[in-house]
């Protein structure tokens, strides 16, 4: 027997099916009473169906896998079972590469120019370059 403890925050199949019992019992009771009122089968003859439904729900619950189960008080992994370790690495590499590239561009833009000035952090638009050249021509 495993040390399974139900946890409402867990996403394993067994914990997700935990809340099926009472809705199934209530629906079955309602259907049995409706059947008793609309037909010749009174509730006294059909109540064993309720036991069958409870048994089926219990069998389904215990047949569900516990893979990815987190007992109460344990840290829940964010992507447990969602990706293999290789897929997780592949998913993080592009984001890290983009961040590193953006940082390199920012650092390159901040490097001092040969004339001692610091380049602007964003590339200048063509209009800004033209207006700067015009300003230099006017001021001579």
Task: Map the helices and strands.
Elements lengths: L12 H4 L4 H18 L4 H4 L1 H16 L21 H26 L15 H14 L1
What does this structure look like?
The chain has helices at 13-16, 21-38, 43-46, 48-63, 85-110, 126-139. By secondary structure, it is mainly α. The protein has two domains: 1-72, no CATH class; 85-140, no CATH class. Helix 2 packs antiparallel against helix 4. It is rod-shaped.
Oligomer: single chain
Would you count the extended β strands for me?
0
Determine the mean pLDDT. 74
Whole-angstrom Rg: 34 Å
Order of helices and strands: HHHHHH
Distance between the termini: 89 Å
| Class of secondary structure makeup | mainly alpha
- Total of DSSP H or I helical runs spanning 4+ residues: 6
Q: Give the % helix.
A: 55-70%
Query: Beta-strand percentage?
Result: under 5%
Shape: rod-shaped
The number of domains: 2
Low-confidence stretches: none
Largest sheet: none
Features:
140 residues, mainly alpha, 2 domains, rod-shaped
């Amino acid at each position: 027997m495993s040390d399974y403890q139900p946890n409402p925050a867990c996403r394993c199949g067994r914990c997700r099916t935990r809340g099926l019992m009472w809705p199934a019992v209530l629906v079955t009771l309602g259907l049995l009473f409706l059947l008793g009122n609309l037909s010749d089968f009174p509730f006294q003859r059909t109540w064993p169906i309720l036991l069958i439904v409870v048994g089926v729900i219990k069998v389904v619950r215990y047949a569900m896998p516990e893979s990815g189960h987190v007992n109460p008080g344990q840290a829940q992994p964010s992507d447990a079972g969602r990706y293999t370790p290789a897929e997780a690495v592949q998913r993080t590499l592009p984001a890290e590469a983009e961040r590193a590239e953006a940082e390199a561009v920012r650092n390159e833009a901040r490097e001092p120019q040969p004339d001692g000035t610091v380049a602007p952090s964003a590339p200048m638009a063509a209009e800004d370059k033209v207006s700067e050249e015009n300003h230099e021509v006017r001021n001579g």
